[in-house]
Recover the amino acids of this structure.
């Protein structure tokens, strides 16, 4: 009904009454959409694009905090960075913590979403429940987990001692420290991701599952052959956002350090991430140019990892 | 009628608002607003109230930060940005060299400050340390940290070691005797002797004339034999299981006081507060302070008040800073929160001499530290990256050795880290 009426009204409205209003109307039609979306792009240009480009500019200088004259270096900061063992150490730590957090996180999130999608009692309560860790302040989470993983008086070590596994030096041992930090990340983000996956799961038309059931497919078969492929775009989204977040991880390792306020990421940098090294270079060593170079290299690493993940997840979920 | 009434009401309200706004503005303009940024506890809260009552035309706002490190990070960032600093900024001994390197961004207090804040107010070395290389007075000294040794009388007794004030003097005569006593203690009790190698190493380091840098700012970490000697002694003590391996000022270190995890710790004057707070009421009377410190005393820490060029009211700010760092005021600050005065008159005052701390076994702490402070004659020269080398290089390297790294590898890590920090 409306479909048939609309075209009929249109020529009436745009009928040439006078030259001017017509031109205004056309201008309005052409320009106003851009005006409506402009605020986002203006804000993005000011707080996103400009800092990005300016960081690139700063990275070409030997720019010390508070320096009035910065020396132009060209690619000097970048060549120093690529031969800097501390940077490679930090990159390796970042990737290790990222893998230890993102991989289990996505798998568990899908599993939790599948459980929440079944006919549970108090369904809304459970759904809200998984989001609670996300509401907690990141700093509070960092401080509490730092205490839980305390070497001498921490709760985790007391429990390990109790069951006979023995104490683990969460600070000194490189892998142990990564696991501890990844635990914080997972605790916070799994529920959030589960809810996103759950939303996508509920958008799957029930007819497909019913048809498969009639064809004799069991629950596992239905999950792998219908649910997972239908979730593909959502899982790609979750993987890419967790890649971006995981590679920029900062607060957790900073607060995990037993030394208050330290940016060294442990005694030998065993859990110093790239952003933590960036922060140390900028505000402890006061080398803003070098820190900017780290920021740009990290940006490229994230782009590569996100694109790579996109292709991997697309293939895996096919 | 109703509309007119409404309009009148609105107009009256607007007018009233306008009048009060103007009134408030006028009052604010006639007063001078000063801000002061401090970290930790300076004990200035009541003093600032007193100053404002005595100077009705001045309004002071204090900004407090818990830890020194973030305070100085913010200070350097705002210094670089050219705005945002308070009229008075406190700086700590460990960051003094970094501040002095930017002395052109601070006021010369000897020019703008009042006449009574002259060199004779402070211990000579403290006054000198407040000056930049080109002789400008950048900071008025607030407090100092004379080094004493704190020990648990009950734990020393249990190990069969002397625990009375005279008896422990032999244990704390030199670092050699201190570490030897630790060895005996570990053998007898199986428990660690001190809290962390970092605290011991820093105290040892601050006793030398030359530290990480020489007078012309050359890094001498690798070539200064004293540093290597300290390193060897401390890492040997770690090997002898004398360290409780707790990270200074961390959560576990604080818990270690409560659980009696170690028997001794180095005690700059400002440490007494944290010992009391961390050890808790259960351990009252068990800690004692000994005026004997291995290889003679020393100084660790202490602060200054500076007036950055950014300040809109440098003269008034300097007056307030001078007033706060006067002997009478610093004694009150000491009584309130414990920072130990660096002013000559304050050290002689009976009020300070008679100050006692009932938490400790021998409560006459005021007289004890005043005696130690009088013996101090100089401060170690600090280079541009000194604080950073202490906190970000040597502390982690020692922690690595405590975590199982060999002393040789730890030393290499420290030297390489110091070179990077000094770059």
């Amino acid at each position: 009904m409306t479909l048939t009426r609309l075209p009929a009204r249109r020529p009436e409205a745009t009928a040439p009454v006078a030259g001017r209003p017509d031109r205004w109307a056309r201008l309005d039609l052409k320009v106003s959409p851009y005006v409506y979306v402009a605020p986002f792009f203006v804000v993005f240009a000011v707080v996103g694009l400009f800092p990005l480009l300016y960081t690139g500019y700063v990275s070409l200088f030997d720019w010390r905090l508070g320096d009035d004259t910065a020396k132009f270096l060209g690619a000097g900061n970048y060549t120093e960075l690529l031969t800097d063992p501390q940077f490679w150490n930090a990159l390796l730590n970042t990737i290790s913590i990222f893998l230890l957090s993102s991989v289990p996180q996505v798998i568990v999130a899908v599993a939790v979403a599948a459980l929440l999608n079944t006919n549970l009692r108090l369904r809304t309560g459970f759904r809200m429940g998984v989001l609670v860790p996300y509401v907690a302040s990141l700093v509070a989470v960092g401080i509490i987990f730092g205490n839980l993983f305390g070497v001498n008086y921490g709760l985790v070590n007391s429990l390990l001692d109790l069951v006979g596994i023995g104490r683990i030096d969460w600070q000194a041992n490189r892998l142990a420290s990564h696991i501890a930090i990844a635990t914080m990340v997972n605790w916070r983000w799994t529920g959030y991701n589960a809810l996103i996956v759950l939303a996508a799961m509920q958008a799957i038309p029930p007819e497909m599952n019913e048809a498969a059931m009639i064809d004799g497919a069991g629950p596992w078969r239905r999950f792998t052959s219908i649910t997972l492929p239908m979730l593909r775009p959502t899982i790609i989204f979750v993987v890419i956002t967790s890649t971006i977040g995981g590679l920029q991880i900062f607060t957790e390792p900073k607060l995990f350090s037993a030394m208050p306020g330290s940016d060294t990421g442990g005694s030998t940098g065993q859990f110093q991430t790239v952003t933590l090294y960036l922060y140390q270079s900028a505000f402890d060593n006061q080398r803003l140019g070098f820190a900017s170079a780290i920021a740009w290299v990290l940006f490229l690493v994230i782009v590569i990892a996100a694109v790579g993940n996109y292709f991997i997840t697309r293939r895996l979920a096919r | 009628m109703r509309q007119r009434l409404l309009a009148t009401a609105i107009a009256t309200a607007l007018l009233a608002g306008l009048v009060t706004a103007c009134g408030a503005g006028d009052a604010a303009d006639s007063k001078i607003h000063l801000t002061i940024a401090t970290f930790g506890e300076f004990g200035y809260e009541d003093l600032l109230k007193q100053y404002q009552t005595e100077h009705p035309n001045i309004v002071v706002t204090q900004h407090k930060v818990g830890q020194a490190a973030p305070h100085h990070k913010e200070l350097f960032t705002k210094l670089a940005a050219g705005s945002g600093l308070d009229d008075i900024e406190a700086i700590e001994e460990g960051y003094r060299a970094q501040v002095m390197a930017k002395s052109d961004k601070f006021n010369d207090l000897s020019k703008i400050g009042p006449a009574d804040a002259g060199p004779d107010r402070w211990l000579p070395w403290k006054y000198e340390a407040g000056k930049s290389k080109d002789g400008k007075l950048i900071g008025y000294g607030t407090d100092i940290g004379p080094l004493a040794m704190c020990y648990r009388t009950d734990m020393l007794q249990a190990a069969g070691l002397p625990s009375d004030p005279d008896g422990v003097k032999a244990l704390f005569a030199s670092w050699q005797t201190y570490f030897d006593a630790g060895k005996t203690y570990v053998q007898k009790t199986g428990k660690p002797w001190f809290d962390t190698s970092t605290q011991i190493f820093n105290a040892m380091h601050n006793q030398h004339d030359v530290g990480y840098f020489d007078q012309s700012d050359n890094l001498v970490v690798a070539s200064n034999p004293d540093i290597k000697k300290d390193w060897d002694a401390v890492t040997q003590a770690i090997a002898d299981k004398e360290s409780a391996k707790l990270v200074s000022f961390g959560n576990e270190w604080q818990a270690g006081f409560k659980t009696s995890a170690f028997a001794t710790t180095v005690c700059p004057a400002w440490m007494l507060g944290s010992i009391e707070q961390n050890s808790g009421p259960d351990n009252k009377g068990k800690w004692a302070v000994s005026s004997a410190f291995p290889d003679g005393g020393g100084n660790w820490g202490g602060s200054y008040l500076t007036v950055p060029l950014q300040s809109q009211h440098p003269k008034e700010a300097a007056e307030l800073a001078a007033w706060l760092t006067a002997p009478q005021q610093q004694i009150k600050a000491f009584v309130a929160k414990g920072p130990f005065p660096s002013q000559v008159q304050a050290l002689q005052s009976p009020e300070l001499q008679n100050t006692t701390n009932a938490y400790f076994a021998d409560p006459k702490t005021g007289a004890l530290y005043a005696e130690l402070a009088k013996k101090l004659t100089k401060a170690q020269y600090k280079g541009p990256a000194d604080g950073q080398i202490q906190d970000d290089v040597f502390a982690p390297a020692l922690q690595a050795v405590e975590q199982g790294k060999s002393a040789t590898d730890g030393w290499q890590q420290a030297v390489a880290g110091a070179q990077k920090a000094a770059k």
User: Anything to note?
Assistant: The longest strand of chain B covers residues 139-152. Chain B is about 50% helix and 15% strand.
